[in-house]
Amino acid sequence: MAPNDNQPAFDKEVTTQTELYTVFPKWKKVYIVSLITFAAWFSTLSSFIYYPVITFIARDLHTTVANVNLTVTAYMLVSGIVPVLIGDLANQAGRRLTYVIALLVYFCANVGTFSIAYGVLVDISTPAERGSYVSALSFG
Fold first, then answer.
1. pTM value?
2. How many CA atoms lie less than 13 Å away from 68 in the CB half-sphere?
3. What does the alpha-carbon distance between residue 44 and residue 33 come to, in Å, rounded to a whole number?
């Protein structure tokens, strides 16, 4: 009897299916998982970084906390609907293209924020101080 004959038939099928499931080596799978985890982190960061400053935003924009909370509601509504559309796009057009489009939209939406933040740094700091503040802005 061969050593593999003691294995149940279903184990042989699982082993065969697992080996044929992907052509990527382990290092590339780890790399891909790292990239998609990093990309998914942006969505989480965008939502959680907003909550601690809601009262400050309301004060600075001369509005109520309830009105600012409407923006949170709108964000959550969009976050609930868009994955259905993006998931279908990923199935039709491919995951790589969908990631590029989603990250491009996110990037474009945040370019304005970065530009405004740099403008604020220019307004509040001397040219000699600006380098350290810009490095902090770039890091964050």
1. 0.51
2. 16
3. 16
- As a whole number of angstroms, the distance between CA 118 and CA 128 comes to 15
Phi/psi class of residue 35: alpha, beta or left (left: φ > 0; alpha: ψ in -120 to 50)?
Answer: alpha
Query: In angstroms, how far is CA 33 from the centroid of its own chain?
Result: 13
Amino acid, res. 126? T
CA distance 52 to 68: 12
- What are the tens digits of pLDDT across the range 43-93? 667 767 777 888 999 999 999 999 999 988 888 888 788 888 888 888 999
**Residue 29 Cα distances to 17, 18, 22, 36, angstroms:** 17, 14, 9, 11
